[in-house]
Amino acid sequence: MGFFDKLFGKKEKQSLDEGLKKTKEGFFAKITKIFAGKNTVDDEVLDNLEEALITADVGLDTTIKIINNIEARVKNEKYVTEAELNTILQQEIKNVLIDADDTLYKNFEIQQGKKPYVILVVGVNGVGKTTTIGKLAHNYKKAGYNVILGAADTFRAAAVDQLTIWSERVGVPIVKQNMGSDPSAVAFDTVTSAIAKGSDIVIIDTAGRLHNKAYLMEELTKIKRVIKKVIPEAPHEVMLVLDGSTGQNALEQAKQFTAATDVTSLAITKLDGSAKGGIVLAIAHQFKIPVKFIGVGEKIDDLLIFDKQEFVDSLFRLE
Questions:
Q1: Which of 69, 78, 83, 242 is buried deepest, with most CB atoms within 10 A?
Q2: Across the strands, what pairs with 267?
Q3: Cα separation of 270 and 162, whole Å?
Q4: Which residues of the chain have a pLDDT value below 70?
Q5: In sequence order, which residues have a C-beta less than 8 Å from that of residue 126 and are 6 or more positions away?
Q6: Which H or E run contains 291?
Q7: Cα–Cα distance between 195 and 97 in angstroms, integer?
Q8: Residue 5's beta-bridge partner residues?
């Protein structure tokens, strides 16, 4: 049994099942009814499946891809069992999810030789960005790493205060300055402090504003530039945090941020509060960026490593 197997054990499976409960009771309960008693994929099945996918915020483009692939696969098979239809749908859903090239995406690990490993976290206010950072710090610390946080969202006093609370709760140091300070200065101080302390991981919070995309891009570019003065290859990761419960709004935010900066990974939060879990499929398919973590609750351990096999298995595992 590998480290990943230990991470995604019985407790994690239970958290995933509970977190996706509303989505399962909505869309995936409909799937059972769509396929019930059917031994062929006819126009009625495809129409009902398309409606269910769109209702779950899977998105039009992703829905069309899934429907077309299913139609092509069963075109020459007049009779297909209900179990086979379910299997085909599960396979096509998995196919639209992106596999991360790096196996470290399946562990709370960092690449050897990249110390400190710098993660720049972006996302609009209210998506659970700061909470996600706190949970990340907790998990990385639990995995044996020395973590330091940088409060570079200096435009909101509440953001700095919230991150400070998380640093105290998790027991990791934080670098911060007064409200209104230059975010890039905070980022620079955080990285230099990490080197001085011998930290393994740096997680930097950034301001969550989209009202002026040009300014957002300028700010993120400046933060990256000052970090590179200390660690030329950093940041090693730019993680975009999205609120899964907002459905298509999360998709629009992904468009804005991927246009403003080079997003390399995704964390999708609040999947437990909505029946719109299908947005994970839409985002992964449209932007070809791997989902690294999903938030399925308020507890400190409710940030789970995303594994598409476990995700799809849970969606189809009706209680």
A1: 242
A2: 241, 293
A3: 18
A4: 1-9, 28-29, 39, 77-79, 99-107, 210-214, 275, 318-319
A5: 208, 243
A6: strand 291-295
A7: 36
A8: none
Torsion angle (degrees, nearest 10) of CA 105, 313, 80, 45:
-100
pLDDT digits (tens, 9 = 90+) for 233-276: 999 999 999 998 888 888 888 888 888 889 999 999 988 877 67
Residue 233 DSSP class: T
Given a contact cutoff of 8 angstroms between Cβ atoms, the answer to whether 97 and 281 are in contact is yes
User: Residue 28 has what pLDDT?
Assistant: 66
- The residues pairing with 304 across neighbouring beta strands, listed in sequence order, are 294
The token pair at 91 is 């396979």
pTM here is 0.88
Question: Which pLDDT does position 202 carry in this prediction?
Answer: 97
| Beta carbons within 10 angstroms of residue 214's beta carbon | 8
Task: Return all residues near 276 (Cβ < 8 A) that are at least 6 apart.
Answer: 23, 56, 57, 244, 245, 246, 247
* CA 308 and chain centroid, separation: 12
**Residue 236: C-alpha distances to residues 143, 232, 319 (Å):** 19, 10, 40
